[in-house]
Amino acid sequence: MPRISSDTPCQTVITTFEMTPGTCQDLMDELTDAFENFISKQPGFIASGLHVNDAQTRIANYSQWARREDFQAMLRSEEMRRRNRRIAALCTRFEPVMYDVVASFD
């Protein structure tokens, strides 16, 4: 489970995916498979969550990695490059952005 805290030493990545409602479930299936069978098994992976908006036009992914380099290595792997081509075909746009947690509120 992701732990959102400014004192947690990890790399946070938030990725947004834009798609039509007709491809939302297909994209969610691809992403779920990627996390269950590949991404979650990569060195440095800590946790992740997938979120879908009510209109099924956006999916947001929040993930945490031990180090920035761990996330980058996963992205550069041949397996993830193949998966990203399939993912890109199901959405109009997706963008992973790395963040540092500067504050959290309970």
Features:
single chain, 106 residues, alpha+beta, Alpha-Beta Plaits, four-stranded antiparallel β-sheet, 37% helix, globular
Could you explain the architecture of this structure?
With 106 residues, the protein is an alpha+beta fold. The chain has one domain: 2-Layer Sandwich (Alpha-Beta Plaits). Helices cover 37% and strands 29% of the residues. The chain is built from 3 helices and 4 strands. The protein has helices at residues 21-37, 68-76, 78-90, and strands at 11-18, 45-52, 58-65, 93-99. It has a 4-stranded antiparallel β-sheet. A hairpin with a 5-residue loop joins strand 2 (45-52) and strand 3 (58-65). Helix 1 (21-37) packs antiparallel against helix 3 (78-90). The longest helix is centred in the first third of the chain and has 17 residues, at 21-37. It is globular and about 40 Å long. The mean pLDDT is 94. It comes from Lutimaribacter degradans. This is Antibiotic biosynthesis monooxygenase. Keywords: Monooxygenase, Oxidoreductase.
List the helices and strands and how they pair.
Blueprint lengths: L10 E8 L2 H17 L7 E8 L5 E8 L2 H9 L1 H13 L2 E7 L7
Antiparallel strand pairs: 1-3, 1-4, 2-3
Helix pairs in contact: 1-3
List the quaternary state of the chains: single chain
Name the overall outline: globular
Could you tell me the CATH topology label. Alpha-Beta Plaits
The figure for the number of domains is 1
User: Approximately what portion of the residues adopt beta-strand conformation?
Assistant: 25-35%
Q: Output mean pLDDT.
A: 94
Keywords: Monooxygenase, Oxidoreductase
Protein name: Antibiotic biosynthesis monooxygenase
Organism: Lutimaribacter degradans
